């Protein structure tokens, strides 16, 4: 590939970027299950929305399925980081699988809150993307009483059975700004609505979007490493585009196109919470081939969150 960047071009890395604690834990669960119980390990849905991670685990012996009927009796099954509905949990138990739950603890926290408030008689408005597995999992915590809104216009269409006990929950990987706007619309229509004590958007989503906000005005173009199915990665691309800096999302370095960089001197680089660092390094190599002469890390928050593994996955543990 011919260099297209200017001769002084540098790459600026967003901080933080890439793996979050929930993704680290989810991948660790599959890898430990493979070591402890041997192949195959069945995983319901992509463990995280990343092509590289999924292909790597396939090679190591993981089989990814959507329908539990594809899993043979007696098999070991892992639920993905995005979480599952009560119906999926019940079906997996009824089929007698050995189950390890890689649902991110921050998603489980939302599930627990939904169950608790439901017992107190609450109905819910959920802000999220229809069809996303996390939304299916959270809405599937109850048989009824969760109304999904995807955009501000949906708020006017919600028809709760009552409004005295109405609570808002959200997907964890949304745009912080869009969600604030939707919450304002919900509060305008339902002034007594109960908001989450601490917003359901997770720390990793918030921090990565904040980092792009800092990066975007300092660069000519931003590259986001992430797979097309990854909600949090797509939001990073949007954050930059809305601030007026062109942004492209790539699943791997081969997807970079030389013409995106023609005449530019500063390239911003970040990665979604499910995108491994090896892909970021490969993108940096490709940008060097296109003419970048240096790489600089921006200042940003250091994340220290770590989640414990479920029981039964350490070697030697019964
Ligand atoms: O839903 C989650 C618990 C986030 C998992 C990590 O990111 P990813 O890309 O697998 O999932 P999203 O599509 O939700 O961002
Ligand atoms: Fe969990 Fe947020 Fe990561 S919900 S899996 S910490 S993107």
List the helices and strands and how they pair.
Blueprint: E1 10-13, H1 21-37, E2 41-44, H2 51-60, E3 62-65, E4 76-79, H3 86-94, E5 98-101, H4 105-119, E6 123-127, H5 133-139, E7 146-149, H6 152-155, E8 166-170, H7 176-189, H8 203-215, E9 221-225, H9 231-242, E10 247-250, E11 266-271, H10 277-289, E12 294-297
Parallel strand pairs: 1-11, 1-12, 2-3, 2-4, 4-5, 6-7, 6-8, 9-10, 9-11
Helix pairs in contact: 8-9
The structure holds 4-oxopentyl trihydrogen diphosphate and FE3-S4 cluster.
Residues 20-23, 81, 104, 106-107, 172-173, 202, 204-205, 232, 273 line the site of FE3-S4 cluster (F3S).
Can you tell me about this structure?
36% of the residues lie in helices and 17% in strands. The protein is an alpha/beta fold and 318 residues long. The relative contact order is 0.20. The model has no long low-confidence stretch (mean pLDDT 97). It is flat and about 65 Å long. The protein has a 5-stranded parallel beta sheet with strand order 10-9-11-1-12, with helices on both faces. A 4-stranded parallel beta sheet has the order 3-2-4-5. It folds into 3 domains: 105 residues, Cobalt-precorrin-4 Transmethylase, domain 1, CATH 3.40.1010.20; 83 residues, Rossmann fold; 84 residues, 4-hydroxy-3-methylbut-2-enyl diphosphate reductase, catalytic domain (Cobalt-precorrin-4 Transmethylase, domain 1, 3-Layer(aba) Sandwich), CATH 3.40.1010.20. The structure holds 4-oxopentyl trihydrogen diphosphate and FE3-S4 cluster. FE3-S4 cluster (F3S) binds next to helix 1, helix 4 and helix 8.
